[in-house]
UniProtKB/TrEMBL annotation:
NCBIfam families: AcOrn-deacetyl (TIGR01892), PRK07522.1 (NF005710). One of its GO terms (molecular function) is metal ion binding. This is Acetylornithine deacetylase. It comes from Rhizobium chutanense. Belongs to the peptidase M20A family. ArgE subfamily. Its cofactor is Zn(2+). InterPro entries: AcOrn-deacetyl, ArgE/DapE_CS, Bact_exopeptidase_dim_dom, Peptidase_M20, Peptidase_M20_dimer, Peptidase_M20A.
């Protein structure tokens, strides 16, 4: 199978984040075994979602991880020009949900696998595929925890998120939390007898938004756009009917932090403001939805130098979106981002990748194999 055929097969699996992914994991594991790789499939605690780890080359050596995720964001937008789960070719573009983010990278790695397996590798190349990355990197921590049983300490991880095949050394970290305010219901004609959870949440959101503005004058890192940590309220829910005092309201808050700052630590003032509502008679709840650290790889690192040689481009200092790379680095594995496609095409209708981008990515992966065969 060539890379386009593999991509078409991967796109056909509607592996939407938060849903079972056994079918795509099984297909990839079968393909890897037939290509000559050793494969291990690990179920997550959900019971219906799986991480996958495959290896070519000597298992007792220290090699590199090619990291990607099998899940995609939903594709319910009406603006799609065709079925998002059927690969459509139009000139140099291949359309479908996940083509750029990030089944294109997966297809390149799988297409290169038979060539890598046929090389006399002196060090291994691992393929680490996770689930539910789009929900805040929920699957990969379970895979990273298993790595000591699966391989010797890797020399580095290449996370194939879309970067136009220019390596990226840093990204921001992220935390998402759900705030809950519980009041007391009643008839809207007697507001004095109830506790309006939406009103309380509205005041809290105003305070949270003001706190978010204060971050713009905090720590700065000018490799990022924007060069500061940022906060937003993204979802609000509450109330039953206009004539019922709402007894419950929730809102989801997201914080994106510079890589040297813990995202959850920056949310401490938000948690304190939420807790203060207890003094007014409300009950409150705090739920961590997701969190992952930022990435910061030194410009002088061996991994950055390797990716410069493999791609022919100087690595980019930083991007503002997040990936699983920070979690690999947190586990002591040098990590960098490099993959086909453009992040600007991700998470939107008519997502696409270009055939030339896939070719460049496959070439990069096979050059890594040549490097490890010669090294």
């Amino acid at each position: 199978m060539d890379v386009k055929d593999i991509l078409a097969r991967l796109i056909a699996f509607p592996s939407v984040v938060g849903t079972p992914n056994g079918a795509i994991a099984e297909w990839i594991s079968d393909y890897c075994r037939k290509a000559g790789a050793g494969v291990t499939v690990h179920p997550g605690p959900e019971g219906d979602r799986y991480n996958l780890f495959a290896t070519v080359g000597p298992r007792d050596g220290r090699g590199y991880i090619l990291s990607g995720h099998m899940d995609v964001v939903p594709a319910g937008e009406r603006e799609w020009s065709s079925d998002p789960f059927v690969l459509r070719a139009e000139g140099e573009r291949l359309y479908g949900r996940g083509t750029t983010d990030m089944k294109g990278f997966l297809a390149c790695a799988l297409a290169a696998l038979p060539t890598l397996a046929a090389m006399k590798l002196r060090r291994p190349i691992h393929l680490a595929l996770s689930y539910d990355e789009e929900a805040g990197c929920r699957g990969v921590p379970h895979l990273i925890a298993e790595l000591p049983k699966l391989c010797n300490a890797p020399l580095g991880a290449i996370v194939g998120e879309p970067s136009r095949m220019q390596a990226v050394r840093a990204h921001k970290g992220k935390a998402a939390v759900r705030l809950e305010v519980i009041g007391r219901s009643g008839h809207s004609s007697r507001p004095d007898l109830g506790l309006n959870a939406i009103h309380a949440m509205a005041n809290l959101i105003t305070e949270v938004a003001e706190y978010g503005k204060s971050l713009t004058s905090g720590s700065f890192h000018h490799d990022f756009v924007p060069p500061y940590s940022s906060l937003q309220v993204g979802v609000i829910a509450g109330g039953q009917a206009v004539n019922i005092i709402p007894d419950r309201c929730t809102c989801d808050v997201e914080l994106r932090a510079l890589p040297d700052i813990s995202p959850l630590s920056l949310l401490t003032p938000v948690r304190a403001r939420l807790a203060a509502l207890r003094e007014q008679g409300f009950e409150v709840g705090w739920q961590e939805l997701s969190a992952y650290p930022g990435l910061a790889l030194a410009e002088s690192s061996e991994l950055a130098t390797l990716l410069r040689d493999l791609t022919g481009q100087e690595p980019l200092a930083a991007v503002s979106y997040g990936t699983e790379a920070g979690l690999y680095q947190q586990a002591g594995i040098d990590s960098i981002i490099c993959g086909p496609g453009d992040i600007g095409r991700a998470h939107r209708p008519d997502e696409y990748i270009e055939i030339g981008e896939l070719a460049a990515c496959r070439t990069m992966i096979e050059k890594l194999g040549t490097h490890l065969a010669e090294g």
